[in-house]
Amino acid sequence: MPVFEVALNLVTVWPLTTISAVFSLYVILLYTYRLTLHPLAKYPGPPLAAMSLWYEFYYDFFLRGQYLFRIRDMHAKYGHIVRITPDELHVNDPSFLPELMPSGGRPRDKCDGAQHELHRTRRAAMSKMFSKESVRRLDPVMRRNLDQLLVRLGEFQDDGRELSLLPMFGAFTNDVISEYAYGFSMNWLQAPQFNQVFFDMIMTVHLLMNPKVLTKLRAELNSALPDVSAPLSINKIEQLPYLSAVILESFRLALNTSQRQTRIAREVMTYNDGKRK
């Protein structure tokens, strides 16, 4: 009896059993390939992570986003380079960052399948919105919202009410961004208690915890802006080096996205951990 007829009879007589057997065989062969013949098979890491994406899914879904910390533990056990998914390596070495995300003529494709050239075209369409010239055009918008904020601060002062900086900063940021992005302000500065909007206060907190830094920043601001009632100029603020340094440091200390920024290299990369030449 031909093999095709035998297979057809099996599917007809025992359809569920046959399908289950074929699927099981496929999974076994797939996992065996990923552990032995896959191009990343030589790199260390948990076998379950190399076999299937279900390993990452378990930590992120059932353990609620704990895979990030599991990766940290992998590096402690396996070293600077670990295999964290069937098709992905994770590098824990800041000195290797220029190789992972280089500038110049070495493109890196994105994990969503977008090639470097396509991503560059998409980014160019939006880059003008975030240029310095575009931000400078926001000067009237920022001044108008700042005036509204000062009025609200005066109300809190007159009433003797406590003021939470968290919603206040959030309302100011939201009104500026909404007017720039959508063409109208959401007017959270006018809402009671500033609408309790979340805003990251990392810079304010660290300044209060570091009096020397706060004193130096105040000295620079007092020197550059002696009249607090005078209108602020973005061009003038950009010329304050210590203020710029404080803002950049707050970005570094702030909690950013924990999502991995996967890159696909088109050329072979060589990693030197200082032990090999």
From TrEMBL:
Its cofactor is heme. It comes from the Eukaryota. InterPro entries: Cyt_P450, Cyt_P450_sf, Cytochrome_P450_monoxygenase. The chain crosses the membrane at residues 12-33. GO terms for molecular function: heme binding; iron ion binding; monooxygenase activity; oxidoreductase activity, acting on paired donors, with incorporation or reduction of molecular oxygen. The keyword Transmembrane helix applies. The keyword Protein transport does not apply. Belongs to the cytochrome P450 family. This is Cytochrome P450. It comes from Heterodermia speciosa.
